[in-house]
From TrEMBL:
Gene3D superfamilies: 1.20.5.1930, Histidine kinase-like ATPase, C-terminal domain, PAS domain. It comes from the Bacteria. Residues 116-179, 244-306 form the PAS domain. This is PAS domain S-box protein. GO terms for molecular function: phosphorelay sensor kinase activity; protein dimerization activity. Residues 193-243 form the PAC domain. One of its GO terms (cellular component) is membrane. The chain crosses the membrane at residues 12-28, 58-75, 81-103. PROSITE patterns: HIS_KIN (PS50109), PAC (PS50113), PAS (PS50112). Keywords: Kinase, Membrane, Transferase, Transmembrane, Transmembrane helix, Two-component regulatory system. Residues 382-576 form the Histidine kinase domain. The keyword Transferase applies.
Amino acid sequence: MLKSIKSFESTHLLFTGIAALCFFVFVVDIQFPLGIAGGVPYALLVMATYWNKTKQPTLITGIVSTLLIIIGFFGSESSEYIIMAGANRGMAIVVVWGAVWFVNKYRESIAKIQKDEKRISALFEAATEGMLISDMKGNIVMLNEKIEELFGYSREELIGEEIEKLVPGRFEEKHPEHRHQYYENPEPRPMGQGRDLYGLKKNGEEFPVEISLNHFETAEGKFIISYIIDITQRKKAEQQMRENERRYSMLFQALTDEILVFQLDEQMQPLPFTEVNNVACEILGYEREELLQKTIYDIVNATEKEVDDRIQHILEHREVLWETEHVTSSGKAIPLEIRAKAFIYSGTNTIIVVGRDVRELRKLEKEILNISEQERRRIGQDMHDGLGQMLTGIGLIAQNLAKKLESNELPGAETAQEISDMIRKADDQAHSLARGLVPVDVEANGLGVAIQELVERIQKLYDVKINYNSNNTGSSPFVQDNDTAIHLYRITQEALNNAVKHAGASTITVGLQSSESYLQIRIQDDGEGFDEITDMTKGMGMRLMNFRAQMIGGNLEVNSKEGEGTKIICEILNESSSTAPEN
């Protein structure tokens, strides 16, 4: 309100002054005709209205001046020179309105410049980064609010001060030299280039900054503009990242398992390893630089198609567990339990493989299996020689008792016969269990017979249809020793038990093929099936089957899909022969 009153008073004073001067010029013109020269004082009065921000005083002054010039023409000029006097008065009016046009255009230009300056000033103040302008002497001439916020100084405290006021004391001595070097050859310097920089706050606290420099030139000389941002949080994040990387590297190298990381190209083909740990280098026998040049194809004891299928399965299931062999630099195959996980890193499919060396575990498992087989054999022999003979003797006594009671027509004869029958069944069951615990005697050529008895026993116990076929015309197929036969029997036994108990199969086919060059056992069912890669390493039964096959130098192949049944093939080849059966 007070500002509006003052503006009104100044405008009123201006109008009063101009009106008085116009009247004075008019009086002079009446007394002493000015002619064309009369336009000059009126034009000066028009230009005096520039100090008012609006066009109104200028236009009014121009109109009043024009009217006074015309009145002066009729009131002072003689009729003798009327034409020349009229022309002079016309020229005076042109001068007046030329002044009006000039003043208005000049006022518009100044207003536009002021508007642009306000816009630039607003942008300067609204910038999210600190902006500071200094002259070629290093004195601060302009700054925005962000600089005040960053350094804690007010604008008045910094204007006119040397820029070294914002530089930590440990750099203050050398900073003028660096500043002069830049001033001698000023070029745009983007952020993030050069050494680490620090700023000094008013309270004496240092903080890391990034500074971008540029220069510009005006009529007042050259100036340097500095763009300053506080990177304290970024430095903390970078420090935390370095610490995390250090911890990751320490944990990565400290793990006792083999770790391999690789990425896939656009065709889903494995690229060379991007990261390996020390254990991987030790197990595979490579230097780190050598191993980083290898691909997964180079170290897996499998065909490229098998590796590609495994990779595809990992991508589908994201995490997979299985057993395989990795080949060392010397060509030796190392059994490993593999856990692989797929993820996206930097927009690329990446797989991390963790392999656990199971050689010692396999030795332990082999020892446990041997002990287990020995214990099975001992229990089976005890059942056959001890319990079985005792049940046989009791059965004979019960049978004789039943006959005597019947011949003497004494009561209890039927009961005694039932007891005799139950003892005989128990005796048969004990012999069957003993046979299952001690299934095979290679010296007695019993593998084929043992598998056939196993099939018959499971058919009776679970009421399931099992088709058994064999091309063996002799009493037993070709095996190397008694342990081999036992492992083959246990694999068959486990496969049949899985088909009956877990797969819910209604029909099972067991095939036995043999010759001098190979031996193959095939078990196929029409049960539920399973995901062969994801599930076959979860159950202990499958893992033991695979382990037994490896122990006897054989190969176990499992083909299964959910809802389509399962086919298990265990095969042993004679190394001296290249003949193999067709699957």
